[in-house]
Specification:
heterodimer; A: alpha/beta; Peroxisomal Thiolase, Chain A, domain 1; five-stranded mixed beta sheet; four-stranded mixed beta sheet; 33% helix; B: mainly alpha; Non-ribosomal Peptide Synthetase Peptidyl Carrier Protein, Chain A; 3 helices; 55% helix; phosphopantetheine (chain B); lipid metabolism (chain B); Acyl carrier protein (chain B)
Amino acid sequence: MSFAIIGTGSALPKTIQTNEDLAQFLDTSHDWIVSRTGIEARHICVAESILDIALEASVNALENAQIKPAELDLIICPTLGGDTVTPSLACLIQEQLGATCPSFDLNAACSGFVYGLDVADAYFARNNDMKILVIAVDAMSKLVDWQDRATAVLFGDGAGAAVLGSGNSLKAIQLTAVGNQHALSIPWPKGNHPLTQNQSNPAPYLLMDGPEVYRFAVAAICSDLRSVVKAAGIELSDLDYIIPHQANLRIIEGAAKRLKLPMDKFVLRVNGCGNTSAASIPLVLDELNRSKTFKPGTRIALTAFGGGLTTGACVIEWT
Amino acid sequence: MVLEKVVEILRNYKDEQDLEVTMASTFEELELDSLDTVELVMEIEEAFDTSIEMDGELQTIGDVVTLIEKAIA
């Protein structure tokens, strides 16, 4: 036994910034961004807190699952961080929902949702009769340098959630991590201890070696998908949908070509949201669930990669 | 031999079969940005079934050819 996804939810901030909007204050253009990333617009938290969108996605997921917050046994919140260092975002979601269960954040960057599913799977192995909320949320707009045209255009904010209950949907799951600070990092803000004031600290904004991340990402999608379908006892061609982390269209195209898979196997939503980090996969999952795209028996692979460097992939059979 | 294969891959990547390429051609001259360069290097690596380091020192087609020749020697 593993678990079944019994409900999904998502939320995006109301403010949308198009590429043309970014070109007002960055030396960039719509055509340049689209040709290199596939991204046309992204949602940015302006009026909303990170908790606001996390809560909206959680409430939607609980309604979709037709369960009450009090029935939850655990809340896992994959995120780079919420509005506060402490309390954790998971605890604030718990408070606002009116749930009473243990709650914690999990930082695996863009691979966070798959990491969260893997942790949840271990809880189900201990006690199969549980309800777990995995709510992935990131507000990358607060973490990127809006004067750096090479990275700022890539990201957006969002939240995506899944409620897990008893079942046998998860056919295989695997995680990897290879510590690497050079490829992608976001330094902490400098503290104000008097003895550290003369030290030079990097600005607390995202730093990324784009080509290195591109190579890592394409290789990760290819190797993770090959091995996770093998672990599930199926072939790549048996998959109905592949939901990759929505970082960059060119990464997904590069992986599809190497796997010799048609692009229509991959669900692509990078155009409207940019890279929403941990939220990108559950945002897509919720959209397809609500449009009733999935039928009992539909085989879905999730494949994620991100800072750490981390990767995660799984095969789910919808029930 | 390595250069000929690299030029063939490059011409296919840019979809320009009469593109003039020499060892001294820079990625900049060929209008290849960092994303194009990494995609191209990955295709070249696959063609030669090897891998090379990309540490920002790659400026010319000759740089890639030299690293590939070392890797497969």
